[in-house]
Amino acid sequence: MKRREFVGLLGGAAIWPLAAHAQSDRMRRIGLMANSVGLPIGRFQAKLRELGDVEGKNLIVEYRYTEGRDDLYPSFAAELVAIPVELIVVFGTPAAFAAKKATSKIPIVLGTVGDVVNTGLVADLAHPEGNITGFVALNADLEGKRLEVLREMLPRLARVGVLSNRANPLNKLNYDTVRRAAGQIGVAVELFEVANSDEVDGALAAIGAAKLDAVIVASDTVLLGERQKIVDAFGARQIPAIYPFREYAPVGGLITYGADIASLFERSADYVHRILHGESPKNLPIQQATRFEIIINLKTATKFGLSLPPAILARADEVIE
After folding, report:
1. How confident is the model at residue 38 (pLDDT cuts 50, 70, 90)?
2. Calpha distance 128→284 (Å, rounded)
């Protein structure tokens, strides 16, 4: 080998790692759409930092929070595409559909959504179409089981209300599932819908006037954002309710049954990191929650005068006393 060629190779070898390092440390820009800031997003941010994607250092995150207005997602998605961001992270089904409509090229990572196949978001979990991947909580499949838990807690259960968000495509699946399950056990179901957070007070007042035996709160980020108001209203009227997310339990929710959405959102940070470093979303299968937890707030049960069946207490993953 000629000396000039050898020196050139050495120079290239020395420069290549530096170039690769510079590439990895360049400022990246992603978007994130959610109803509001909260624990799931905090876990996601912490995991990104652990992976080396640090806001202000090598990462810019364009946050778009709707604060109870799902109708804002389409305009927010259009803004993120116009910037443009390199990737969009979404929390909840309405945000996912808005991102899908806005772009077929920019990768979309589902931080957590309730269902993707039955809502039509994607056709195949193992081989997601185009630019969409992420994590699914399977909330639609759990609605019948939530009704079963209520029936176990309240053997004389006859009339159940469902608090739902009609702007969320997932919630129609939720309600259909509850209605079918209720018909099989002879329980009447009444639907109480909101379109945004401004309508929650009215729906809660209607539920209070309906004199129901219990309520199922649908899997929805708008309702999650109003969890303290919802839990307080049911507490004041001593209406037993079952909730889809663990975040309801610490603020006084009687019982929750569902996937840990904060954990799923945290796992999505790994997908974001891998896509930013060259992997295609097509090669990252959509993952479903595999663990579902029951959390019981015993203080609320005592306040309601409920004596919970030992079998439910035994199945609980966590009991707040």
Report:
1. confident
2. 8
